[in-house]
Amino acid sequence: MTEMTCDDWQELLGDLVAGELAGDVVVVFEHHLCGCPPCVTKLELYRATISLSRCLHCHPEPLPPAFAAKLRRVLLSADG
Ligand SMILES: [Zn+2]
């Protein structure tokens, strides 16, 4: 396997959260996360986005404006 960059790992976040990565890949991924706060932040955001979209699915009311604004800020600041 060639060396994985943060971009490579972040492309796999969806598979990690969905439990679709092979066990040995998960071990290497978690090892990377131990030393890489930016990837941990991306992972947390990814999980938050997923639980939020599930939540919206059950409760289709609009988000409170203050929360929506905060979420948008977090997502934008984490971009790139
Ligand atoms: Zn990383």
Quick structural overview:
The chain has 80 residues and is an all-alpha fold. Helices cover 74% and strands 0% of the residues. It is elongated.
Properties at a glance:
80 residues; mainly alpha; 5 helices; binds zinc ion
Derived structural class: mainly alpha
Number of separate structural domains: 1
Give the terminus-to-terminus CA distance: 25 Å
Tell me the number of helical segments per DSSP (H or I, 4 or more residues long): 5
Report the sheet-strand fraction: under 5%
The Rg value, from CA coordinates, equals 15 Å
How would you describe this protein?
With 80 residues, this protein is mainly α. It has one domain (6-79). It has 5 helices and no strands. It has helices at residues 6-11, 13-17, 23-34, 37-58, 65-78. The longest helix has 22 residues, at 37-58. It is elongated, with a radius of gyration of 15 Å. The structure holds zinc ion (ZN).
Show the helix and strand layout.
Blueprint: H1 6-11, H2 13-17, H3 23-34, H4 37-58, H5 65-78
